[in-house]
Design goal:
- The protein is α/β, with parallel strands linked by helices.
- Helices cover 30% and strands 24% of the residues.
- The protein has five domains: 95 residues, 3-Layer(aba) Sandwich (GIY-YIG endonuclease), CATH 3.40.1440.60; 62 residues; 179 residues, P-loop containing nucleotide triphosphate hydrolases (Rossmann fold, 3-Layer(aba) Sandwich); 176 residues, P-loop containing nucleotide triphosphate hydrolases (Rossmann fold, 3-Layer(aba) Sandwich); 87 residues, 2-Layer Sandwich (Alpha-Beta Plaits).
- The strands form eight sheets. Strands 10-11-9-12-15-8-16 form a seven-stranded parallel sheet, sandwiched between helices. A six-stranded parallel sheet has the order 17-27-26-18-25-24, with helices on both faces.
- The structure holds adenosine-5'-diphosphate.
- The site of adenosine-5'-diphosphate has 15 residues, from helix 7.
Amino acid sequence: MKNAQVLFPVNVPTAFDYRLPADMTVQRGDFVFAPIGKQMKLGVVWDIVDDDGQRTLKEIAGVKATQPLSAEMLKFISWTARYNCVSPGLVLRMVIRSYKALDPSPVVTHFSPSGILPAKMSPARAAILERGGPFPARASEIAERAGVSAGVVRSFEKAGGMRAQSLAVDGPFGAPDAAYGGMALTPAQRNASDDLIYQVAQKDFNVSLLDGVTGSGKTEVYFEAVAEALKDGGQALILVPEIALTQAGMSRFKTRFGAEPAPWHSQLPDAQRRRIWREAAQGRAQLVVGARSALYLPFPNLRLIVVDEEHDTSYKQEEGVIYNARDMAVVRAKIAKHSVVLASATPSLESLVNARSGRYAHVVLPERPGAVTLPEIKLVDLKDHPPEKGDYISAPLIDAARQVLARGEQAMLYLNRRGYAPLIICRNCGEKLKSPDTDSWLVEHRATGRVMCHKTGFSMRMPKACPDCKAEDTLVPVGPGVERVAEEAARHFPEAKIEIFSSDTSGSPADIAARMARMEQGEIDILVGTQMVVKGHNFPHLTFVGVVDGDLSLAGGDPRAGERTYQTLVQVAGRAGRADKPGHALIQTHQPEHEALAALAAGDRERFISAELALREALLLPPYGKLAAIIISGPDKVKAAAFAKKVVSLAPRTDGVEILGPSEPPIGRLRGMYRQRILIQSEDTVNLSKYMLTWRGRIKTPNKYKFHIDIDPQSFM
Ligand code: ADP
């Protein structure tokens, strides 16, 4: 007798045992129905084991007629769960994003003229033939075009004038054609693409770091690797940061491959989600472009994963299953034996160290194609050039913007802060406006007349009186957001067309595309933007970038603050001078001596990298040591702190592991829950995931309290 261990897509630590009925055969990865309590649930056969006859077990009720998950996929689920210290059921839930996708596509009846004219023709039937097309189409579509009711279409079919056929609602995606388009590559690009093509052709596990300056043509180069992967029905997955999933990005794929890829992201409507899932699982969607969660689609023939902008923090999922899609992409490739390309103009130090040690192939694009030069970056020391009182833009930035506008070119002002002002203070009593249930200041959004908490989304109308002392008209904004910078720019350049680009101003994808098009066509003179502007947009007439606050991302306790600042500023400056016009960037700063900023101004990446790596090595920080975090939260501040202390007291003792904390993080209260953090630092040789799992095994989390493990944390809030 055999038992099946069934994993359900829920948060329980293991798979459950069931007896296999004698007349039922299943294999690992099959979707099966099995009883839990009084309910019948869908799960996946995780393993098949001999029955020891010791227990009475419930039986598997039935097997779902659908394609099983592959052995590779099961291994990937298991690996993800173990590495990130979560239950495999939660990872399975990320894989099964749509139960409907397990069924064949629903069908819908389409009608087209049969070519036979029934004896009884009416004006309505004639209208269907004249104006109802194009055929085949649904009755409702034909009816609308012909100006008749859908019932007329159906009765016309019964009379023999139309033919009905059942067509799948979820059609296949257009097949990409590897040889469709493509640019004439420069010799350097050709070399790089040959390297990548060679790797993909190995059909074995390998990772390449495509390290090319902004605008060097990395996308064009990895397209060639994608083309190689698509041969003989292979599949390719391109991961991009969520906000780079724009229409403009998609149409580049169409230009190269003749078909739009399947786009996958977290906000997909259900119908599209099931269609893409099913097509990807059947191997029919060959090219998928998606945000991080696309990594958990069950591709059967995957031959390449590209992680574009691999340094980007949006690859880290911070809620639910906390994982880093860049790292898990490498894991998946190792299990399924295929290639990964990590692409960036500012690779993470982790990837650079792997490339230097020879673990990853290092493919370098040192320059932009043609005569296009990289923008020159200079610092503006705010001690020497303070802006006017109450202002935020210094004279050198104003002068530079004036010059490019006079030449009919465009300027961009960058500040990664949404809204008008990050803080509102009462002139009378000194109180700051706080979020009601979270340790976070309320941000003024003047465009909407509201104040908002950016941590929780809470918002309310801007109050007239101070909530604390009740004095009226005493609330004043402190510090700048993009709205305030735009207001200031409008004062300096009253004639200029100024637009703000942030997540508040960009609504739908169509909206973003329209604004991008206006910018490309030169209809905007000055674009004031947050990090929304950084990713993957090409603006041919943009020749000056002014960074309003170069120090912003240096603050806080994040060990990667210097690296992030360096990466962001290179990327922001890289927006300038894309076509045949040279660009330049000015960065306002109070800390011109900071290594990240000084290296930027010197145009010396190597200097920054060596200094930063030396520091990390000395402090045993990634990539030379490992980090993990425990985040505890609960409804009572004192009890949360006591629980955190108890957790620390239960830590396994091992050499090479150091425990820091517990301590209250910068956001000590979030949505009414009090938080505590513990930071765990280990030597590189320690299996930190295993250590954390052992530790977690000793913890009993009280009711209403939460205990999360974050492997390699990117956020320290
Ligand atoms: P990256 O991804 O490195 O920032 P892209 O692939 O987006 O660079 O290329 C930047 C711009 O240069 C794009 O508009 C692209 O079409 C153009 N480009 C890249 N390579 C070539 C080439 N060989 N010939 C002409 N234009 C190119």
